[in-house]
Amino acid sequence: MTNATTTPKTTLRPIAPEAWETTARARAQQQGEPDWALEQRRIAAAQAKALGLPSREHELWRRIDFRTLEQGLAALDPFHAGPAAATFGDLPAGLQAVLGEDADRAGVLVQRDAGVAFERNAAELERQGVIVCSLERALTRHAELLRPRLGALIEPDYDGYAALGAAIRSGGAFVWVPDGVEAALPIRLLHGLDAAGRLAAPRSVIVLGQQARATIVEEQSSAAADGLAFHLGGTEVFLGEESKLVFATLQEWGGNVYHYSNQRARIERGAELQWIQTVLGGRMVKTNSYFDLAGPGASAYVHGFMFGDERQHFHLHTLQRHLADHCTSDLLIKGCLKDHARSVYQGLIQVAEGAQRTDAYQANRNLVLSDTARADSIPGLEILANDVRCTHGATIGSVDPEQMYYLMARGLPRNTAQRLIVEGFFTPVIDRIPLEGIREHLRQVIQRKIG
């Protein structure tokens, strides 16, 4: 596939201080990072310099504005790491609250700013041969597993931010589930930003062997603060033949955070991916989620929602890439907006030549709660095979007055009636999230946003 984000011929703007790359490589070398990973950093830094900041002339950047971040980018600190915690109880109360009581029954990794502060693999998972550790630890202890996969799906020349993230990456997780193993417990990966002025660039790699099973929940959380912060993330997921992964990303940054991430998954023969994505926080959010159905009979079921208020701006780009025959992908993204919030959904189904008997669906449904909010929906198809079923659709509307009248006529206040309608709108996605504690938390966030 031709790179969908090739930067137009424009005057390049420097993306970050060159000293960042030098410092990142020096720190990684001190930690024992292997030469091949250091070389990846060097190449990515050269590409970041060549690409510069993404231009708004490009289609995927036309509808989102990172200029405020660009002006303050050089002042951010990409190397600050929160203090390590020897036990779960040593973590800040806010992070403990996010993980909740279920943390004792899971493999857990917690990142604070640019470094992993706490990692604990449950004994049940260790007995199964499941690995849950920081990416830095994996680079020294599991390099043979990591080398063919780190950077294999997120192309370092995708755009300037992706290249920068590869050059200065710090933290992130490595998860390995061996062939034939069904992980006995869920795995939870928490990313937190402690304060303004921070830049975090974690990279995570998740691998399931043949006929393996796992549930992984990635949570991104911070309190609101004065001043910019930037989360520059990347996740690469590899599903072996006949494996099954339930993966949820729950984003709830404070209102000062800019967020940019690339998430990629490669799904082999007969494997199944259940992908849940929620976008609730942040000031300006851009997420690219791409799914390669690489083996016959592979399937991906993608469900997500965005809920923006005040002046939040969310941009979600998805790619369902059918590379083999008899594959299925089913995507539903829902959005709800109030105040002056804005969302942009851009989705593309690609069917390669020879990917016959493809069954692909893509839908984006939006609920607008105020006259000043705006939702844009841009679905698309690129089909090079002739025996396929591919459909897409999009809707943008307001709360049904008849539904409001029905509820209010039975004694419910307007706000309560609206809350029930919005909760019902999101329920099909929330019900797919694997942990009840997280489902209840999301319901509370929705209630808080409605007011």
UniProtKB/TrEMBL annotation:
GO biological process terms held by the UniProt record: iron-sulfur cluster assembly
One of the Pfam families matching this protein, by short name: SUFBD_core
Record domain SUF system FeS cluster assembly SufBD N-terminal: where: 121-189
Domain SUF system FeS cluster assembly SufBD core stretches: 195-425
Superkingdom: Bacteria
Family stated for the protein in its record: Belongs to the iron-sulfur cluster assembly SufBD family.
Protein name, UniProt field: Fe-S cluster assembly protein SufD
Native organism: Eiseniibacteriota bacterium
